[in-house]
Amino acid sequence: MAQTIELIRGGVVGDVTEVHSWVPAKRWNPELMAPPTQKESVPKGLNWDLWIGPRAMRPFHSAYHPVHWRDFWEFGCG
Which domain holds residue 63? Predict the structure, then answer.
């Protein structure tokens, strides 16, 4: 992706008027777009405050970590 952007910005491919992209996997889950309402215990060794970073604090839920954070707009691809 970065190389493509470089080529476009460098004028190598001419004027770009439209771009389509996709993820070649079934990552997106529309049922997970709303944050979970249940609270779970934070796993030992995980600093939840650090993991959340600049986002609004919310209770830990395994729907976010370790892998599915990508399903939420707030954390990744949404």
Answer: 41-78
